[in-house]
Design a protein that fits this description.
Elements (H helix, E strand, L loop, with lengths): L2 H15 L3 H4 L27 H8 L7 H25 L4 H26 L7 H14 L4 H14 L14 E2 H5 L3 H11 L1 H15 L12 H25 L2 H24 L16 H7 L3 E2 L3 H6 L6 H6 L8 H7 L1 H4 L3 E2 L1 H5 L6 E3 L4 E3 L1 H5 L2
Helix pairs in contact: 4-5, 5-6, 5-12, 6-11, 10-12
Length: about 375
């Protein structure tokens, strides 16, 4: 049959079989080619899966931000955030429990604002990098995260994720079994404390957002722009907190700002963890590590309830984001709808993600994450 006919048939099959991931909650089973795309064939003549690198030109079609959509997601996030703050402030004259409950909701919207700042850092929320930097810097005051510092640290994470030869800023440190055994008893204890869920998800978020973010830790000798970003963010935070105190005393700071920011910090660290620490995670040493393979196969896709996926701005579709970070978050579901084979990669339920809490060491021979107990028997 003529190749053009095959392409048309492939497109029709895709259109007929396309299933919305958000609506169905499961990966479509079909693997049809997109209209006009070249099918990859193996020696038997059957369609062969694309390599991670071969996905790049396909995903590049989704990188253009849609101005109207971008303005809408900012409005539907910042608007409720401000409205909830006003409602919580008003509730200070009533039961404390009402204010705290509203602070929980504010915390989720703050998490979504952080995700918008995240997209600004990747230059994907607006077509203009300058606009991304301005909006990202302003959001940094709200999320108490200096934008330029975070952007540099996060870029390093994308450049080195899963590379055992490069342990850089922005990573959750993961030792191999051999590296752990080579440590002194005190070194092993410190790593166990570091990997303990209480430290990772209770103490670390507080230390990171409230303390570490106040100085450009790790970048203090790498240029004044990181100091400017950090100090200007600190100044903005001080002005906001000063205004809160001037108009409402300590109550809005202690009952709204601190609880909501803490919840957003906890959620942010948890989200980062489950997207790279899971059964089936991908780690390689420097000689065998490849950035695109690590991005696609070393990042999970956590299936969240619709409301939580909205609050986290589709960051749970992390494997696609890591492979092509210039795609605006609101176009990530579009990618999975158009390419069902991507929707089948590294899928985790919320329950599955909990298993990652006990996976603390990388076993190079078994090519998997294992617990401390499992490591003792290897």
């Amino acid at each position: 049959m003529h190749p053009e006919v095959w392409r048309v048939v492939g497109g029709l099959r895709q259109k007929r079989n396309r299933i919305s991931i958000a609506r169905m909650g499961q990966a479509p089973l079909c693997r049809a080619a997109t209209l006009g795309e070249k099918s990859l064939k193996d020696e038997s003549g059957l369609s062969a899966p694309r390599t991670a690198r071969e996905w790049l030109p396909v995903l590049a079609q989704y990188r253009v931000p849609l101005k109207g959509r971008t303005l809408w997601v900012i409005a539907n996030t910042l608007g409720p955030f401000v409205g909830l703050w006003a409602l919580a402030w008003w509730s200070l004259q009533g039961p404390v429990i009402l204010t705290l409950l509203l602070s929980v909701v504010i915390g989720f919207f703050l998490m979504r604002l952080f995700c918008l700042q995240h997209d600004c850092g990747h230059g994907s929320l607006f077509a203009s990098r300058r606009t991304c930097n301005i909006v990202g810097g302003l959001l940094g005051v709200v999320t108490i995260t200096p934008y330029a510092v975070w952007r540099e640290v996060h870029d390093r994470h994308h450049r080195h994720s899963g590379n055992l030869a490069v342990r850089d800023l922005g990573e959750i440190r993961t030792l191999t079994i051999e590296e752990y055994r080579a440590r002194t008893p005190l070194g092993q204890l410190s790593y166990r404390i570091y990997r303990n869920p209480v430290f990772l998800f209770v103490l670390a978020p507080f230390l990171l957002f409230f303390l570490q973010n106040r100085i450009p830790l790790g970048l203090m000798k790498e240029g004044r722009k990181f100091w400017i970003s950090t100090m200007s963010t600190n100044l903005g935070i001080a002005l906001v907190l000063g205004a809160m105190y001037a108009f409402g005393g300590w109550a809005p700071i202690l009952l709204i700002f601190l609880p909501s920011t803490t919840i957003a910090a906890f959620a942010g660290v948890w989200t980062f963890y489950v997207h790279h620490q899971f059964e089936g995670a991908h780690f390689e040493d420097g000689d065998h590590w490849q950035v695109h393979e690590a991005a696609l196969h070393g990042s999970s896709q956590v299936i969240l309830p619709g409301w939580l996926q909205w609050m986290t701005a589709n960051i749970s579709l992390h494997h696609v984001h890591h492979l092509y970070s210039r795609i605006p978050f609101y176009r990530l579901p579009e990618v999975l709808d158009d390419h069902p084979e991507l929707a089948a990669i590294n899928r985790l339920s919320m329950r599955d993600s909990l298993a990652g809490l006990r996976m603390n060491l990388w076993d190079p021979k078994g090519r998997r994450l294992v617990s401390f107990a499992e490591a003792r028997s290897l």
